[in-house]
Amino acid sequence: MKRVYVNEEWCLGCHLCEYNCAFANSGETYMPKALKDQKIYPRIQVEEGDGVNFAVSCRHCEDPICVKSCITGALSIDNGVIKVNTDKCVGCYTCILVCPYGCVMPASDGHVIQKCELCTQNSCGEPACVKGCPNQAIVYEDRGE
Amino acid sequence: MQKEGQFHIPSGCAIAGLFCKDGRRVSGESMIDSITVMHDRSNGLGGGFAGYGIYPEHKDAYAFHVFYDNTAAKESVEDFLTQHFDIESLSRIPTRKTSGITDAPLIWRYFVHPLPRMLQDMEVDEREYVVRCVMKINAQYDGAYVFSSGKNMGVFKAVGYPEDVGRFYKLEDYAGYCWTAHGRYPTNTPGWWGGAHPFALLDYSVVHNGEISSYDANRRCIEMYGYSCNLMTDTEAITYIVDYLNRRQGLSLEEVANVIAAPFWSTIEAMPEPKRSQMTYLRNTFASMLITGPFSILLGFSGGMMALNDRLKLRSMVAAEKGETVYVASEESAIRRIQPELDRIWAPRGGEPLIFRLNEGVKF
Amino acid sequence: MAINYMVPEYEVVRDPQRCIACRVCERQCANEVHSYDPELNCMRSDETKCVNCHRCVSLCPTHALKIVKNNDTFKLNSNWSMQAITEIYREADTGGMLLSSMGNPNDYPIYWDKMLINASQVTNPSIDPLREPMETRVYLGKKPDHVERNSDGSLQINTPPQLELNVPIMFSAMSYGAISYNAHESLARAATELNTYYNTGEGGLHKDFYQYGPHTIVQVASGRFGVHKDYLNAGAAIEIKMGQGAKPGIGGHLPGTKSVGDVARTRMIPEGSDAISPAPHHDIYSIEDLRQLVYSLKEATAYKKPIIVKIAAVHNVAAIASGIARSGADIIAIDGFRGGTGAAPTRIRDNVGIPIELALASVDRRLREEGIRNNVSIVVGGSIRNSADVVKAIALGADAVYIGTAALIALGCHLCRSCQTGKCNWGIATQRPDLVKRLNPNVGYQRLVNLVNAWQHEIMEMMGGMGINSIEALKGNRLMLRGVGLNEKELEILGIKHAGE
Questions:
Q1: Pick the CATH number of A1-57+119-145 from 3.40.309.10, 3.30.70.20, 1.10.10.60, 1.10.760.10
Q2: Domain end: C96, C127, C158, which one?
């Protein structure tokens, strides 16, 4: 299936992906309105250090440990995309603890979790992080994995 | 107004030609008949004919046809000719009063042989010597213009419709194995006799219908080799290119056609070796002699005639055969007029040369 | 502290309604113009450092930024411009020569913009490149003088080595060192895909790029950096650099700070040492010396590669070119006074040399007058800005053009003219790894390919309009050009008529 991949050789650590992600999931149509004076809660986060930058988001594992560990059935796999049903989520954070990549995080209100759903649940159409990456470091492609 | 030769003149035209492979000589009358049908394709600002095999009694002499504006020009050119050539005979070219032909210059004909001593001094072959002399007269002698300089052939041209030009020169009195004719439709010209076609150098004569878009590229290239394009017409440039490639570089006429109407690179690439590298060589080596834009030309030369269209065939040209005679013209009607019954008639493809030569053993 | 006489050239204007303080501008500015104030939760800027490269503007996700010319002004003076005064302050501050980058930006005539192209109407049909073949292929190199025949009568292929180009556009010399590894990779891959050539400049050829050798022109400059037998044989052609349009008459200087790692290795010099190219080649003090180098290089490469001699367009360019055309060189490259550079003394860049249009016109004419135009091909560079410039250059008589600045602009360059600082925010004219990686060659090469393809389409449209379907029929076809607003002398030198004539 098509997944988001990051090539650290080209990742500049500009953090634009984080802002594009936060904007895409804000439901707003004007970025300043959505993000001005707000703390952002992006579903992709840039890890930095020692000249290497790497944007990390959900890998959409084939055998996802987060889904297995969810106590309410809020996490499920839909056509390979791991999605969260916030109506079912009780905010127990088990998934956050078990994710080996650190790609599940509390949502802004802290009551439920959020994660990358490949922009299938917003109006972006394709992953906003990919679309907005200035150096094609983040790509959305099918590598047969 | 600027004179012809001071600016580039594009023009549309009619062309026609006939060639007897068996060497049979026909009168110029039929060529006049043929070109008359295409009256609409000319506008009265130029017409002309070239006949081959018309001077059998002087066949070893270069026949110079010269326009003079005045007797002073004639005297100075005759001085030059005397110094460089042995003049076998000279005379006015016979003409008849014809309505539609006005302002005729003095028109003279000389049958000449290069002086061996001068030839030796210049260390060039005879034909090159003649070319240089003709170029010199045309470039340096005001009021004189050599418009025909081949052996056993002659050009007859004037300002007017071609049929009037033919009658003016009494072409019914000449007989040749090959005739070409031209009716000119220049978009602007002060109407100078020398500017009419055919354009000739040695025994090469060219009639051309078209307007070549590559003109200045071709002109600036050919002028590097000692030609000066005084008339600034397409036909003049084409004639010089043919002379350079055929006479001076020794290319065959087929090869000349592959230079001036070169096949597209994609066509060349599809050719088998060694043809591909031969064609690539020609196109690359003589790149600036590629002619683009619409043209159909008839090239007359001793013993043959070549017809060629531009590679996109942007000008009409049809060819036909009847027995041992071939016909080429801008329009089929011009052929049917003089030969209603044809064995074969066809439209040659763009860039594909038709080359006709006298049958083996035929003397001219 | 000494008085700061300098006034910032530009002002950073930030729209507070739009800025979301995402700090992209801060992270992307190698000049450290932008910074974040956590207490005020807003961005600040220090415009004294701004070079107006537009990296921040291009990456700002909310379009909150613009860079405008600073309105602050010295007392107005038509003679002493602000620039003239500021340059004096800078020189008085440092005692050093002023350095600049890229091409001469001053207000000299641009002859390309004073020539107009012809089109067919009525008497001659225009040709539609979408429906008919339209050829832009060019061969560069000396053409044979005489046709010779084999014993079977076929033509002897006696053509000296040639370069075949699908489109008459090559990437001009820019050294590895002056520009980055990724910029070089972009150029090399684009040249390969386009079936044209890029040029190593005088910095040698990185071992990774030998694979692009068939589309590489290797340069031999006065410093001979990176020149060895394998290098010479790796390329498709060898260029002897005698001069450069941006700095005719002087050499080059890659500071030791840029001469790091692979750059130094490729140049075959110790890391950290300044790479100084002498002003002349010290084995070429005259035309006959040039001939010896031409033939040395031919010997070294078994007469299989065309030799290019590159010169700057200077006053006597026609006579120099005529000498080169008789020196055994196969191609002459002429670089006009607008040509770019990674660093040049400002006074030289802005005051030495002549416009390429005039140089080209007089070289082409001189070589034709002497009947030696086919001895060499002519390639011109020095500010070819678009496809119309290419068409005009070819109509004046060029065989092909070199583009350098235009190629860099395709890669993102915004002509901030600060290459000499080595802090190129676009990853082009820098060796800092964090900046170099900003130019992803996968993106860069595609942009170059796109640019040249777009130009090729435009060239074909213009040719078709003129009724020309093969580029060789455009070469030297000066009747296809008319001048506007040029005086008699300029028209005479260009060999064209005025519009309306």
A1: 3.30.70.20
A2: C96
CATH number of the structural domain spanning residue C334: 3.20.20.70
The tokens describing B273, both together, are: 């070796």
* CB < 8 Å to B281, chain C: 155, 157, 159
Q: With contact defined as beta carbons under 8 Å apart, do A30 and C40 qualify?
A: no
Token pair recorded at residue B218: 């071709």
Tally of domains in chain C: 2
Of A13, A32, A134, the CB nearest to C62: A32
> Which one has a higher pLDDT value, B168 or B2?
B168
Residue B88 has pLDDT above 80, yes or no: yes
* Least CB–CB distance from A14: residue in C59, C442, C443: C59
- Please check whether residue C390 lies inside any domain of the structure: yes
Q: What is the pLDDT of residue C1?
A: 63
Which residue from B216, B255, B314 is facing C477, i.e. has the nearest CB? B216
Q: Assess whether pLDDT exceeds 90 at residue B7.
A: no
Answer yes or no: do C301 and C351 share one domain. Answer: yes
**C23 at A interface, C-beta within 8 A:** yes
Identify all chain C residues contacting A18, using CB atoms and an 8 Å cutoff.
Answer: 22
Q: For residue C384, what are its two tokens?
A: 């070819």
* pLDDT level of residue B45 (50, 70, 90 thresholds): confident
Q: Is the pLDDT of residue B11 over 90?
A: no
| C96-151 residue pLDDT tens | 999 999 999 999 999 999 999 999 998 888 999 999 999 999 999 999 999 999 99
Residue ranges of domains in chain A: 1-57+119-145, 60-115
Asked if A136's CB is within 8 angstroms of C22's CB, the reply is no
Rounded average pLDDT over B187-192: 64
Q: Report the C-alpha gap between B193 and B45 in whole angstroms.
A: 9
The pLDDT value given to residue B1 = 44
DSSP string covering C190-247: HHHHHT--EE-GGG---GGGGGGGGGEEEEE-TT-TT--HHHHHHSSEEEEE---TTS
Look up the CATH architecture of domain A60-115: 2-Layer Sandwich (3.30)
Nearest residue of B to residue C365, measured between CA atoms: B220
Q: How many Å lie between the alpha carbon of A95 and the closest alpha carbon of chain C?
A: 29
Q: What's the domain range around C345?
A: 138-176+207-252+280-412+458-498
For the question of whether the overall pTM of this predicted structure is more than 0.90, the answer is yes
Quote the percentage of chain B above a pLDDT of 70. Answer: 95
pLDDT of residue C44 exceeding 50, the answer is: yes
b/e map of B329-350 (b: 16 or more CB within 10 Å)?
bbbbebbbbbbeebeeeeebeb
Distance separating alpha carbons of residues C310 and C299, to the nearest angstrom: 20
Look at residue C90 in the predicted model and tell me its pLDDT.
Answer: 94
Could you check whether the bond before residue C248 is cis, i.e. omega within 30 degrees of 0? no
Q: Is residue C399 part of a domain?
A: yes
Q: Residue C59 is part of a domain; what is its CATH number?
A: 3.30.70.20
Tokens of B143: 């009021």
Residue C132 lies in a domain: no
Tally B–C CB contacts below 8 A: 107
- Residues of chain C found within 8 Å of residue B208, distances taken between Cβ atoms: none
**pLDDT tens column, C449-478:** 999 999 999 999 999 999 999 999 999 999
Strands B325-329 and C34-37: unpaired
Cα–Cα distance measured from residue C38 to residue C25, given in angstroms and rounded to the nearest whole number: 15
Q: Domain for residue C418, yes or no?
A: no
- Note whether A71 contacts C: Cβ–Cβ < 8 A: no
CB-CB neighbors (< 8 A) of C466 in chain B:
213
* Residue A123: per-residue pLDDT: 85
Give me the domains of chain B, ranges plus CATH numbers. 11-357 (3.60.20.10)
Q: Which of residues 244-303 of B touch C (CB under 8 A)?
A: 249-251, 255, 262, 264-266, 274, 277-278, 281-282, 284-288, 290-294
